[in-house]
């Protein structure tokens, strides 16, 4: 049985990029595959940037409610909060002893910060905490502790999964085949969902469309998506982010019709209106569930507690095996 694992960090409201890039493919896999699915909230990863306890809590519930509202069935999927599983952090230390520092120097998030500092002519490590620097090791622990085979992610997480493989290899070379080497799973068409300004949709770029914003805000945000300057009745380019988003929420028939309209020419304003309609109607039922859960947070607490117990049934024996190999048990 294959193990599918993925996580989302609560650093902001979950957005269309998170849904299309990770949640949707993960939930589809959970339905299709003869596999065990493990989905979690990477709250300690969020601590590298969110230092406000109210916000931290709010975003954590938000990510949990989002997964559940979009169809995660806690009876079929193991669903927990990372900070409830201390074994992950114990493994993280062990793995850090098998991680060359140079590998962390090359990790994207750290490198981006260093480049930004260089451009500003300030100390290269300004604003870098060790949590940010060793972030990929904790992520490797998330993945390797459960012997995950498949990690569905967007493009920005591919390097992290590759680092997890490298670390697994370093450990296995020393002690034998203990860890399973994970593979990332990516859908080429949706590996990078663009945000309002055309760059990758990202909480840190402030260009997101939150999945569960109210209809009015959703409409406003969709209207802000950047388009090219073609004239209203000129043919439109189907590589447009608007068409990409439309395809994710519309039926096959609607997609065909929209394609025709793109070829024959349709004003962008009209496309945006129709995009709003399909997303909004798709989200109508999930939004009710989301709001209900956000107003009844004890239900989320119960689900996550139960999930942590199930996760530990798997990961405690796994960690014990690892400790035995090292010689500390
Ligand atoms: P995070 O919280 O930034 O994003 C969660 C998932 O959403 C994907 N994603 C996107 N996909 C397509 N287009 C976009 N614009 C877009 N923005 C985000 C991400 O690629 C990701 O799959 N480090 C991870 C969380 C994590 C994790 C793990 C993931 C911690 N441990 C173990 C997998 C396995 C992160 O920050 O994702």
From TrEMBL:
L-tryptophan binds at residue 142. One of its GO terms (biological process) is tryptophanyl-tRNA aminoacylation. ATP binds at residues 9-11, 17-18, 154-156, 193, 200-204. A motif ('HIGH' region) lies at residues 10-18. Keywords: Aminoacyl-tRNA synthetase, ATP-binding, Cytoplasm, Ligase, Nucleotide-binding, Protein biosynthesis. GO terms for cellular component: cytosol. CDD domains: TrpRS_core. A motif ('KMSKS' region) lies at residues 200-204. It is an enzyme of class 6 (ligase). Its main location: cytoplasm. It is found in: Cytoplasm. It catalyses: tRNA(Trp) + L-tryptophan + ATP = L-tryptophyl-tRNA(Trp) + AMP + diphosphate + H(+). GO terms for molecular function: ATP binding; tryptophan-tRNA ligase activity. Belongs to the class-I aminoacyl-tRNA synthetase family. Catalyzes the attachment of tryptophan to tRNA(Trp). HAMAP family: Trp_tRNA_synth_B. This is Tryptophan--tRNA ligase. It comes from Anoxybacillus thermarum.
């Amino acid at each position: 049985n294959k193990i599918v694992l993925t996580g989302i960090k609560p650093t902001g409201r979950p957005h269309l990029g998170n849904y299309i890039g990770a949640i949707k493919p993960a939930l589809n896999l959970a339905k299709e595959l003869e596999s065990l699915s493990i989905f979690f909230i990477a709250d300690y990863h969020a601590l590298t940037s969110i230092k406000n306890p109210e916000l931290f809590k709010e975003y954590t519930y938000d990510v949990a409610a989002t997964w559940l509202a979009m169809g995660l069935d806690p009876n079929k999927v193991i669903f927990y909060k990372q900070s409830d599983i201390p074994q992950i952090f114990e493994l993280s230390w062990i793995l850090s002893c098998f991680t060359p520092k140079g590998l962390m120097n090359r990790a994207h998030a750290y490198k981006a910060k260093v480049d930004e500092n260089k451009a500003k002519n300030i100390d290269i490590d300004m604003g870098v905490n060790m949590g940010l620097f060793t972030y990929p090791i904790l992520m490797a622990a998330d993945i390797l502790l459960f012997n995950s085979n498949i990690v569905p992610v967007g493009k920005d997480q591919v390097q992290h999964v590759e680092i997890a493989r490298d670390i697994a290899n370093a450990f296995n070379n020393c002690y034998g085949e203990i860890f399973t080497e994970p593979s990332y799973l990516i859908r080429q068409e949706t590996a990078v969902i663009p945000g309002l300004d055309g760059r990758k949709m990202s909480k840190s770029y402030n260009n997101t469309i939150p999945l569960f914003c109210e209809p009015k805000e959703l409409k406003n945000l969709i209207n802000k998506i950047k388009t090219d300057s073609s004239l209203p009745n000129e043919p439109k380019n189907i590589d447009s982010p608007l068409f990409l988003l439309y395809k994710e929420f519309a039926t096959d028939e609607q997609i065909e019709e929209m394609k025709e309209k793109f070829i024959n020419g349709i004003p962008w304003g009209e496309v945006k209106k129709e995009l709003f309609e399909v997303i909004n109607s798709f989200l109508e039922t999930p939004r009710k569930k989301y709001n209900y859960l956000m107003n009844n947070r004890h239900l989320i607490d119960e689900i996550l507690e139960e999930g942590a117990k199930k996760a530990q049934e798997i990961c405690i024996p796994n960690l014990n095996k690892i400790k035995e190999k090292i010689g500390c048990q």
